[in-house]
Amino acid sequence: MPELPEAESIARALDHALAGRVITKVEVFFPRLRTPLAPLLSAGLPGRRILGCRRRARYAVADLDDGRALVLHFGMSGVARVEDARRPRRKHEHVVVTLDDGRALKFEDPRRFGAFEVQELGPDGWPVSLAGIGVEPLSDDFTGEMLFLASRGLRRPAKELLMDNSIVTGIGNIYAAETLFACGIAPQRPASSLTRRECAALVRAARRILRAAIRLGGTTVHDFRNVDGSEGKFVQRLKIYGKAKCPRCGSATAKVVLGGRTSWYCPACQH
DNA sequence: CCTTGAACCTGCGGGC
DNA sequence: TGCCCGCAGGTTCAAG
Fold first, then answer.
1. A21 phi and psi, to 5 degrees?
2. 8 A C-beta contact, residue A33 and residue A41
3. Is residue A3 annotated as a catalytic residue, yes or no?
4. Is the CB of A35 under 7 A from strand B?
5. What domains appear along chain A, each with residue ranges and CATH number?
6. Could you give the CA distance from residue A131 to residue A245 in angstroms, rounded to a whole number?
7. Nearest residue (Cα to C1') for B10?
8. Fewer CB near the terminus (10 Å): N or C of chain A?
């Protein structure tokens, strides 16, 4: 479900809701998500205070007062909620972390592609499992030149370049499509065919679109919900993802499957 | 190394 | 109404 703007919205809301709270109880209701959940039960979490929550890539990282962190990934259908602990459990609520204020952090994920782990922080201050992932698209490290260099020698489609987490993190199927449309670049163009100028334009467009999406609380197409249950309003700003007609020229959009993902584009505007 | 495809899951909407 | 098919904001691993 979430790409970077959705994960950012969740992490900000969790920071507000969880900072300063002490964990009183941890329950799991399914053996595993993407990884086993049993380690949560033997991690000695009750009594630990949560310092705050931040985001890296599509992960929400809730720091604990003992140098470890809760690391959440939302897969395709994961939802985090903070609500009254007495509220009855939903069908796919797999993890419930009860807090000292009578509320609970609840992780719901029907498809179970998500993850909920406790991890040590590495020397860089981030959970060890996040080492080696690509640059943050909203950081100064994401530049046209960097993207251009990464694209050299790659025959893979330009869209896969934008979605490759080992290069740049957090741009998923929706925002890759929107970024390519904004730049007039066809998603199936080989990455190696991108010019310096085009890479610079892609970087500018991606940053602008991601920032706007964060401002609107992300994009809700199907399942995504913010921590308070609200929907992401950027869905109203989508120009090409899921659209039948191009908003720029009015011609019918086309779909192509790249890397197993449906990719919308305008054959008239994107080359 | 690079690229592709499959695997991991449930739910929902459309067609018959 | 019920069944089958295709499709959904992601990640990872194996094989060519």
1. -75, 150
2. no
3. yes
4. no
5. 4-130 (3.20.190.10), 144-265 (1.10.8.50)
6. 41
7. A111
8. C
| Cα–Cα dist A48/A23, whole Å | 6
Q: Using the CB atom, is residue A75 less than 7 Å from strand B?
A: no
| Angle, in degrees to the nearest 10, between helices A196-215 and A4-18 | 40
What is the pTM (predicted TM-score) of this model?
A: 0.97
- Using one digit for the tens of pLDDT, what is the confidence trace for A137-153? 999 999 999 999 999 99
Give me the CA A22–C1' C13 separation in Å, rounded.
Answer: 38
Which residue is nearest to the C1' sugar atom of B2, using CA? Answer: A154
| Minimum-distance nucleotide, CA of A91 to C1' | B10
Q: Residue A60: CB partners within 8 Å, gap ≥ 6?
A: A7, A10, A11, A14, A53, A54, A71, A72, A73, A74, A80
How confident is the model over A148-175, as pLDDT tens digits? 999 999 999 999 999 999 999 999 999 9
For the CA atoms of A182, A179, A247, A197, what is the dihedral angle to 10 degrees? Answer: 20
- The SS3 call for residue A164 is coil
Instruction: Give the distance, in angstroms, between residue A90 CA and nucleotide C1 C1'.
Output: 27
- Establish whether A2 is a catalytic residue: yes
pLDDT in tens, A3-18: 999 999 999 999 999 9
Tokens 């897969």 — which residue?
A75
What pLDDT sits at residue A1?
65
Reported as a single tens digit per residue, the pLDDT across A23-79 is 999 999 999 999 999 999 999 999 999 999 999 999 999 999 999 999 999 999 999
